[in-house]
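#dry-run=false #mode=assembly
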Amino acid sequence: MQLVLEKRAERSAYIAVASPLIAIALTLITMSILFAILGKNPVMALYVYFVEPLTDLFTLQEIVVKATPLVMIAIGLSLCYIANVWNIGAEGQFLFGAVCGSWLAVVTNGTDAGPWVLPAMLVMGAIGGAAYAMIPALCKVRFGASEILVSLMLVYVADLIMDYLVRGPWRDPQGMNFPTTAAFDPVATVPTLVEGSRLHAGAIVALIVVMLAAVMLGRTIKGFEIRVVGAAPRAARFAGFNSKQLVLFTFAVSGALAGLAGIIEVAGPVGLLQPGISPGYGFTAIIVAFLGRLNPVGILVAGLFLALTFIGGEGAQISMKIPLDLTKVFQGILLFYVLACDSLILYRIRFIRTFRAPVQGAA
Amino acid sequence: MKKYLIPLAAALALAVTGAGASAQSKMKVGFIYLGPVGDLGWTYMHELGRQMMVKELGDKVETTYLENVSEGPDSERSIEQLARTGHQLIFTTSFGYMDPTLRVAKKYPKIKFEHATGYKRAPNVGTYSGRFHEGRYIQGVIAGKMSKSGTLGYIASFPIPEVIAGINATILGAQTVNPNIKVKIIWVNTWFDPGKEAEAAKALADQGADILMQHTDSPAAMQVAAQRGILAFGQDSDMIKFGPKTQLTSIVNNWGPYYLRATKAALDGSWKPEDTWDGLKEKMVLMAEYTNMPDDVKKLAQDTEAAIIAGTLNPFKCPIVGQDGKEVECKGGTALDNGQILGMNFYVKGIDDKIPGK
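#status=ok
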């Protein structure tokens, strides 16, 4: 017997919806087996991972805090990916946005600057992220350079720029030489939504971003253009859509969103600029974008889901002593199954009974 | 919807925590680790300390650790997760957890916190660290004797006082046997990154350093030194198995006795937020066996160690001369005082380099 992948005549709309669900189901089965091998009760483990964090106000809030930057970045990336533009450097745009916004917080630190500081920081973060994303976009449009490589390499550049600043000119004079800026003043800090919690106003910004993206993709000409250029570049050319402009546009939007996420993270949960402000949000957001099927609402759900696995993984470490590595294995398995199931949208699996016939093979 | 959600969530949370309350007689102790427990360096030694404490106290305690907790926005949540799951004593084992620890401690005034290597305390936050520069001084003496090229290679992490004091102590030790000793320093800006540490080690060897030492946590530099056939010092743990013919000695962080002491104090109610800074004498800092050196160097190292333990030798005994050639004020009478060492932000004379960002 033989297994073959056979191309479908058209995309299966049914599988497109079901694929992430199948992927999650397969992940859960695989994880249960792994838990069982480790000698942990799989039902209990899955409960701790996926249900317990949802039963408590603290963990619910922390899930939102964790998901906020992921969702914002992933929304921007989804616009690029729909248009067949490959921005892989959201991590760099996140950091550069954080740096640009922080500049204002650093120079106004300790002065009696008014409440205009935070809004100005957010604007600068977004502009900074967009400007940084323009580098790979312009290189692609002008010189035909691969945006994948250029945007990825610029991640490390942004990291080093930030490193230099917090180690040198922006270092907190009272910070015992440790590479951080001074803690931001209250006027330069994103307000929290609930007293005593870390849930901050950035979550609302993320929700607004999701709604705007949904409206833009579904109801505006620009959204139509993005989809057409991605799906049928030739048809788009005949329709008079300028694909070069679209590269610039999608990069600018995704860079701005990543930069905004960066400055919100710095001015929110962290409260100062320091190395390590991003545990790889810009890269995890790529997973979020695809897990959410490049759909704004899907991305919101996917971002919350991935955040849930982080928090749940921490809970599992505490209450069941399940190693952290398993959380990472879990995320890897999830991505693997998502990609595997996605191929079922365009292909179908067929079992072919092979007889020992010397005629041409079905490969 | 939201109206129902909160009481519902609260009820469920009660059900969950209520179920776990049967094991309440044990005191729960939590640890936050920077690296993976298998880093064979900093985190590994804290983990060994935890295991030793558990072995001694048996079923009086139940311990939990969270590993690989980055010093960014995640650490505050991780610490709070421990605080709200019934942990009565929480050790946060890296400098970068300082402010998050204090913030969580403020929210949970009944829980005791112990922060490693920090300098901010609160009514429920104590700090602890080791006088690692004592070990560095001994390594300096050995390196001064053993180096043929007269150049040491130093892989440094962050230019914070502890690291700078380590470099100074090394050079002061080395100068007692070789006044012309030189040191090349590479800052890798990380505590744990085997790839970067190995790159730095290779670069230092290429620049003529024939003895490598590090203030980072992985055995990568030891492995590079072994390949190149030069000598090296281990860090955090005894790394002899990574360089049986390479390691001269290693500073061994011995946290177990402290974890035992602090936990016992928390158990019997005598815990206070203290600033603990123990060294070779109190055995928080140990030296691995002196290997791969002639007997006279070994004897010298042992004598130096004994003198530090006896209190007759202080690595920062006055006069200390800075890079600018001026003598450093001697606030401790015969040696620099603790505040000067904990806030050290200058190089001593003989280091031909500049502190980054200064």
